[in-house]
């Protein structure tokens, strides 16, 4: 006969196994906390030192020091002189239809249409008006979500101001705090623009110098006014036009980047977008760890209560091992199995002899 050894499943109800499980979960929690601590850049400053340079493309420039805000003033003309403006290389289209035959939208702008646009001059010149209203009509005819998907984040404020001509006609997105938003009366134009709004806002890197934008639509409920104290959070997606010259409150002529947009996006105070966290999954890991810890603590508490109830039961008392020492074992009488069997055999013979009507097993047969 062959016997198979069956492996028994360990019991996790014993206090010893419960302590082991608790230690395992505690060790896992320590490892998770160590991972979170090690993921912070500041944790390793003792080894590498704090960073002294910003990442490439994110250098913090001082708008007050690195930008020329002066407005170019027209030189006076003597009697009989006049200034001629160059003809545009491409005529401004009479209408705007950015939708292609396949249903997609063309958000690009032919840079030749903006050749006559001049930076750092006060206001909008007559020869720039057609190009400006063309961009307004184009931005208004393209769905806002398509514009936002096609736009790139705006370069730093200082870069845009120093390299204005490089970004002319580019579609970009800027976020900031709105300071001024007022309606304007549009000039006569061939694109059907009848509503126009002017806005001024400050981006995170522009300091005390504003951006200016023009748009044709506003989100419902957005506050308007010449001096918005609450400064709503907005996002402007539009075409960069030029460095716009304007008179500041101090009476000086300064310049600001001008964006041409269709509709702006407003984030109410309760919906202000937060910067994405580099450890977005951390909170889910922490919540999962807390759930596991609470569940394990509850199970251990229940096991402890059950152990205490079992210890008070009659079954536990019956299963208790008697308290015996080695000296007590010496007094226990031992029994020889052979001797016991011999005594049993003799007793059986004597019982058979004593019974009447039966001859003894050793008597002779007649």
Proportion of residues in helical segments: 25-40%
Number of strands: 8
Count of alpha/pi helices:
11
CATH superfamily of one domain: Nucleic acid-binding proteins
* Largest beta-sheet characterization: 5 strands, mixed, barrel
The CATH architecture term of one domain is Beta Barrel
Terminus-to-terminus distance: 50 Å
SSE run: HHHEHHEHHEEEEEEHHHH
**Strand fraction band?**
15-25%
Provide the structure class: alpha/beta
Shape: rod-shaped
At the third CATH level, what is the topology name of one domain?
A: OB fold (Dihydrolipoamide Acetyltransferase, E2P)
Low-confidence segments, given as residue ranges, are 53-58
Give the averaged pLDDT, no decimals: 81
Description:
It is built from eleven helices and eight strands. A five-stranded mixed barrel has the order 3-4-5-7-6. The protein is rod-shaped. Keywords: Membrane, Transmembrane, Transmembrane helix.
Brief description of this entry?
With 366 residues, this protein is an alpha/beta fold.
Comma- or semicolon-separated keywords:
366 residues, alpha/beta, OB fold (Dihydrolipoamide Acetyltransferase, E2P), 5-stranded mixed beta barrel, 11 helices, rod-shaped
Give the helix/strand layout.
Blueprint: H1 15-38, H2 45-48, H3 63-66, E1 121-122, H4 126-141, H5 144-150, E2 152-153, H6 157-162, H7 164-167, E3 171-184, E4 196-203, E5 211-215, E6 233-247, E7 253-261, E8 265-267, H8 282-311, H9 314-318, H10 326-330, H11 337-354
Parallel strand pairs: 1-6, 2-3, 5-7
Antiparallel strand pairs: 3-4, 3-6, 4-5, 6-7, 6-8
Helix pairs in contact: 1-8
Keywords: Membrane, Transmembrane, Transmembrane helix
Transmembrane segments: 21-38, 284-304
Biased composition (Basic and acidic residues): 62-86, 352-366
């Amino acid at each position: 006969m062959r016997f198979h050894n069956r492996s028994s499943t360990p019991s996790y109800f014993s206090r010893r196994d419960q302590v082991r499980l608790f230690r395992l979960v505690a060790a896992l929690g320590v490892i998770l906390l160590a991972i979170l601590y090690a993921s912070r850049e500041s944790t390793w400053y003792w080894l590498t030192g704090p960073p002294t340079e910003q990442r490439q493309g994110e250098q913090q420039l001082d708008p007050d020091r690195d930008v020329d805000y002066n407005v170019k003033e027209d030189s006076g003309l003597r009697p009989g002189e006049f200034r001629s403006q160059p003809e545009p290389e491409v005529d401004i289209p009479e209408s705007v239809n950015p939708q292609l035959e396949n249903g997609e939208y063309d958000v690009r702008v032919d840079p030749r249409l903006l050749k006559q646009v001049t930076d750092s001059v006060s206001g909008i010149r007559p020869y720039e008006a057609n190009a400006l209203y063309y961009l307004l009509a184009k931005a208004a005819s393209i769905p806002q979500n398509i514009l936002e998907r096609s736009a790139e984040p705006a370069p730093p404020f200082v870069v845009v101001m120093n390299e204005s001509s490089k970004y002319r006609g580019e579609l970009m997105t800027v976020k900031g705090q709105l300071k001024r938003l007022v309606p304007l009366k549009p000039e006569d134009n061939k694109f059907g623009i009848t509503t126009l709004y002017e806005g001024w806002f400050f981006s995170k890197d522009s300091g005390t110098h504003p951006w200016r934008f023009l748009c044709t639509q506003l989100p419902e409920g957005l506050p308007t006014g010449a001096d918005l104290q609450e400064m709503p959070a907005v996002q402007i997606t539009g075409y960069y036009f030029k460095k716009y010259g304007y008179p500041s409150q101090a009476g000086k002529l300064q310049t600001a980047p001008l964006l041409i947009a269709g509709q702006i996006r407003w984030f109410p105070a309760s919906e202000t977008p937060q910067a994405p966290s580099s450890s977005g999954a951390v909170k889910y890991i922490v919540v999962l760890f807390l759930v596991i810890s609470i569940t394990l603590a509850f199970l251990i508490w229940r096991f402890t209560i059950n152990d205490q109830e079992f210890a008070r039961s009659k079954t536990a008392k019956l299963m208790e091992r008697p308290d015996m020492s080695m000296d007590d074992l010496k007094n226990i009488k031992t029994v020889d199995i052979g001797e016991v069997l011999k005594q049993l055999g003799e007793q059986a013979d004597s019982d058979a002899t004593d019974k009447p009507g039966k001859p003894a097993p050793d008597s002779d047969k007649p």
